Amino acid sequence: MLEVKDATIVIGEKTLAQGLSFTARDGQLTCITGSEGSGKTTLIRTLMGFLPVKEGFVSVDGELLTVRSAHAFRTMMVYLPQQMQMLRHQLDAPESPVCEMEEYGVWNATQPVVKPELMAEPLSPEEIFRLAEQTIREAGDKQILIADEPAAHLTPELTQRMTALLLQQATMGKTVLIASRKPQLVAQAQQVIDLDALRI
Question: In the predicted model, is pLDDT for residue 135 greater than 80?
Answer without folding.
Answer: yes
